[in-house]
Specification:
alpha/beta, twelve-stranded mixed beta sheet, seven-stranded mixed β-barrel, binds 2-acetamido-2-deoxy-beta-D-glucopyranose, Arp1_N, signal, AS_sf, Amidase_dom
């Protein structure tokens, strides 16, 4: 998602810059030697501890004169790609930087000119042009200077892949200049993050916690790097800004799982989880760890104690963010400066947060990506997905991120090895489960009807109405025809065994040892279950039996409900709603005791389990898709507000990429659209 360059328009903007430039104002030095400063009305962090490069200055100019005795000042590294650097080429290059949200013309106090071309020529008119922009000092790569640039400071050559173009904080000492990367500090006004983070830059692959908050309300500040740093980076995710659920290890940071007690007994992660290391390898970066229901539970907003529940920008600003990956869906709905958020889904935790925030979010097929280095919930029901506002960007990310080398082994999933074709063998049938649809709010139903009509006409699909619950109950095999028993029995074991072994037991025993037999202070969602955990019932043998029972259910499902044919990876796509069917669900419990509002995770009358429980059992892929919005009268603002309407699309395990291809076609046809940030999705 590199920002496009419209140099013609922007050229005018740059040449018309006011010459009065904002003065830099230092706010604080952090204990880890990063500094925070203000420039114009924007606050920045500069990683002065580990600058991108330190270059020696040569020649006999008085370095301290130009900086007015200051040792730190803003600088723009300009990367030229022409063989002859002229006023026009510099003007076009600098003009193109205005599309970035981190760089501002205030960084033109000084300029370093580097070139991606060997021995380029540079005329003195170029320097005159910089002077006209009120650039106080120009630093020139010695390769460019040719020894005849009295108005500039000559430096050693910079490697432009080590020091990419963009805004920096220059730090002067003796005859050398350090270039510290800068991050714009965005306010997390919806309090969706635990803390911001940035690459330590020490060569270790560590990340550093920004630990910065605004006075008054204590909103975390999230450090966001300039997109210019990635302009010359050919990797597919170059410059993507990604938020990570605080369940995934990032090297150098403590993974809290949303629990201060767990954070207390844990050391910083010594490696980044392979699933999210892949995002770094593809060129993306992590800007913060976001809030989650403690230990990825399904706790309601009013059941959170250890963290302050995050806010949803939609509607009245008082709606639920749902449970486990709540900060992810809500931050994607809130902030244009954020591109993606990564979360996990065991029972609903990507899909329902996406539904209530009106964003795209997926539960992939079981086994799609390794969860090593991630606090587990159900070892064989956990999955990792991505939130996005844009159907194309969502599909692009997912199709690069999920890669066969990171598939989980059958030993983890208990299921057959995963095969993920990437073709246009779309479903032929739209399964319409009459026990889960229509939508609860009749005002939302026309939006779904239009979608179904659009899918039918675009792809020639036929709609098949069926009763999901009755279909399961009609199975001949007694091992698979009781979905309630499967959900409570084997899935119950799967969803508690791994987390107890890896997290619960070590926390409870360590806490008791440290604090005279005390039980750790944790939210109510896990307290009773861990207090009374029965290792005899939930044994390793029981766990492996549960995996076999789940596998039998998956094999039945892929034979009788959603199966492959010669033409289609998944012969059907099943629709249902994991959200509220177009009703508001508030973060405040009492407000949901109202026929015009809804709690979450309701099992519809006549259905045996929630719709959310289908894919955790059958291993299928389940995507939440925003399709519209309907009005409601808010019990908080006493004003009409809009609530998102979403639908879930389910396909057979392994058909994730085919479903993404279908979603791109729906977007091509204008049926699906990118959602906006803020109060309304559309
Ligand atoms: C040029 O910039 C300097 C430093 O920011 C400032 O003091 C000066 O007033 C500016 N000159 C003009 C003509 O704006
Ligand atoms: C910050 O300053 C810019 C340029 O002067 C202005 O366009 C923008 O509205 C200001 N933003 C805020 C939040 O004050
Ligand atoms: C040089 O950079 C400009 C913008 O900075 C870009 O539009 C152009 O494609 C680049 N040319 C080459 C040859 O890379
Ligand atoms: C520039 O740095 C990159 C990355 O470290 C390296 O691969 C490349 O060889 C360097 N180029 C030069 C000319 O030193
Ligand atoms: C990186 O983080 C790990 C874990 O906190 C720590 O042990 C290590 O010292 C850090 N490395 C550097 C170079 O700071
Ligand atoms: C990281 O820590 C784990 C224990 O928490 C240990 O088993 C592993 O060897 C360590 N890895 C590295 C690279 O230090
Ligand atoms: C998977 O294999 C590993 C190593 O072979 C083993 O330790 C683990 O117990 C197995 N997991 C299950 C669920 O059988
Ligand atoms: C989708 O359905 C709406 C409402 O029926 C209709 O207006 C629109 O033309 C359809 N779009 C496509 C691409 O079929
Ligand atoms: C634990 O489970 C076993 C096996 O189901 C059962 O016999 C035992 O009574 C349970 N223990 C407790 C304390 O409930
Ligand atoms: C539909 O909404 C009502 C509140 O109006 C709620 O009681 C009911 O549980 C909801 N049903 C479903 C299936 O969400
Ligand atoms: C629910 O909404 C309807 C229609 O807007 C309204 O007439 C009714 O008073 C509302 N009920 C409550 C309890 O707010
Ligand atoms: C679906 O089937 C179940 C089980 O037979 C039944 O209880 C329920 O009423 C049916 N629902 C609908 C909408 O037909």
């Amino acid at each position: 998602m590199k920002t496009g360059i419209t140099s013609v328009l922007l050229l005018g903007a740059v040449t018309a810059l006011p010459l009065k430039r904002s003065e830099i104002s230092f706010l604080k030095s952090k204990t880890d030697d990063a500094v925070v400063f203000q420039l114009g009305n924007i606050t920045y962090l500069a990683n002065t501890k580990y600058p991108k490069a330190t270059i020696s200055l040569t020649g006999d100019r008085n370095f301290h004169a130009f900086s007015g005795g200051r040792t730190s000042f803003p600088i723009t590294v300009v990367s030229s790609n022409t063989s002859s650097i002229t006023q026009q080429s510099l003007s076009a290059t600098i003009g193109s930087y205005a599309s970035d949200d981190v760089w501002t013309p205030d960084f033109l106090e000084s300029v370093y000119i580097s070139s991606t071309v060997a021995s380029p020529g540079m005329g003195s008119a170029a320097l005159t042009y910089l002077a006209s922009l009120n650039v106080t000092e120009t630093f020139l790569d010695s390769a460019l200077a040719g020894g005849r640039m009295p108005a500039a400071t000559i430096c050693n050559s910079l490697n432009s892949s080590v020091v990419p173009p963009g805004p920096y904080l220059a730090v002067l000492s003796d005859a050398s200049l350090s270039l510290a990367p800068v991050y714009r500090l965005y306010e997390d006004t919806y309090r969706d993050f635990l803390f911001g983070t940035y690459e330590s830059g020490d060569g270790s692959g560590n990340f550093t916690s920004a630990d910065l908050a605004l006075p008054n309300f204590g909103y975390p500040l999230i450090p966001v790097p300039s997109r210019l740093y990635y302009w010359n980076d050919p990797r597919p995710f170059a410059g993507f800004r990604v938020a990570i659920k605080d369940l995934f290890d990032i090297k150098g940071l403590v993974t809290s799982g949303g629990s201060q007690a767990w954070a207390y007994i844990s050391s910083p992660a010594n490696a980044t989880a392979p699933s999210i290391q892949r995002i770094l390898d593809l060129g993306g970066t992590f800007v913060g760890k976001y809030k989650l229901a403690q230990f990825a539970s399904g706790a309601n907003p009013w059941e959170w104690q250890d963290e302050h529940y995050p806010f949803n920008p939609r509607g009245d600003g008082w709606l639920t963010c749902s449970a486990s990956s709540s900060g992810g869906g809500c931050s994607i709905a809130a902030y244009d400066w954020l591109d993606y958020a990564i979360g996990s889904d065991t029972g609903s935790s990507m899909r329902r947060p996406a539904a209530v925030s009106g964003t795209y979010g997926n539960r992939p097929s079981q086994g799609m990506i390794t969860l090593d280095g991630v606090i587990p919930l159900g070892g064989a029901t956990d999955t990792a997905g991505v939130f996005s506002r844009d159907p194309y960007k969502w599909a692009y990310f997912a199709k690069q991120w999920y890669t066969p080398s990171l598939h989980q082994s059958s030993n983890v999933t208990g299921l057959a090895a995963l095969s993920v074709p990437d073709n246009d063998g779309f479903p032929k049938t739209i399964l319409f489960p009459t026990d889960y649809l229509p939508l609860n709010n009749s005002a939302a139903e026309p939006i779904l009807d239009a979608l179904i009509a659009n899918m039918s006409s675009l792809f020639g699909m036929t709609v098949k109405r069926f009763n999901f619950t009755a279909t399961v109950q009609a199975a001949v095999n007694p091992a698979v025809n009781n979905i309630v028993a499967l959900n409570n029995g084997p899935l119950g074991i799967i969803n508690s065994y791994t987390q107890w072994e890896v997290i619960g037991k070590p926390l409870v025993t360590t806490w008791a040892r440290l604090f005279d037999g005390r039980f750790p202070p944790i939210d109510s969602a896990r307290r009773a279950g861990w207090r009374a955990y029965n290792e005899t019932r939930n044994s390793f043998t029981a766990y492996n039996n549960a995996l076999e029972q789940k596998n039998a259910a998956v094999e039945w499902y892929e034979t009788y409900v959603q199966y492959s044919t010669a033409d289609s990876c998944s012969e059907s796509v099943m629709l249902y709603d994991i959200g509220t069917g177009g009703l508001p669900s508030y973060r405040e419990q009492n407000l949901n005791n109202n026929p015009n509002a809804s709690f979450l995770a309701i099992t519809p009358k006549g259905a045996a389990v929630t719709g959310a429980s289908i894919c955790p059992l059958y291993g299928c892929a389940d995507y939440t898709i925003p399709i519209g919005q309907v009005p409601y009268y808010s019990q908080v603002t006493y004003h009409t507000e809009m609530v998102p309407v979403t639908i879930n699309m389910v396909v057979k395990r392994g058909c994730d990429f085919v479903l993404f291809n279908m979603i791109e076609r729906l977007a091509d046809a204008g049926v699906l659209k990118a959602v906006k940030t803020g109060t309304t999705a559309f």
